[in-house]
Here is the input.
Amino acid sequence: MHSIEAAAELLSGVGVAKPEIEAAIGQLLIAFGEDVNREGLERTPERVARMYDELLAGYRVDPYALINEAVFEVDYEDMVIVRDIEFYSMCEHHLLPFIGKAHVAYIPSGKVIGLSKIPRVVDLFARRLQVQERMTAQISEFLQAAIHPHGVAVVVEGMHLCSKIRGVKKADARMVTSCMTGSFRDNQATRQEFMFHLERGDTPLSI
Here is the structure.
């Protein structure tokens, strides 16, 4: 498990350099055999640079500042689950998107984190050049280091365009990764309770 100091070092990063990206995209278009001056492509390098600035915004977010005002002392030590968190990320191997859902649970040890912060933490790690395995571990390790719960469980389901539209071209293939810490790793009943909630499907709540 990472200490808070080690986690902070692990999560540091810088934003994208737009002029360099624009120049590189221009060179790619030329390499593709395109005319970079034709109407449809004149501003493509600029648009792509803005796109990457948005899709890779996770490099510029301090995760501790993100959750700083939303950690509360609460006398509650049962499971907290936030499921079906949509995410969009970029595969670092082919620079193609992978998209899916993340399911996050933790068992508080005197502190809880605001509901909206968990999806934001998922977005923070997703909006980087990633592999799904590392992203899953980063979400789990950060929450463990930040609020010191009895345990954290993260399951991520992703559909990868690099295997959908190229290579093996398996359109329906999904990748599932998980990372468990503390009581989720050590206690089978706790882990099974978490998986039971995930298997319940998308049954709407009745109020």
Strands lie at 71-73, 80-91, 97-107, 111-113, 129-130, 151-160, 175-180. The mean pLDDT is 88.
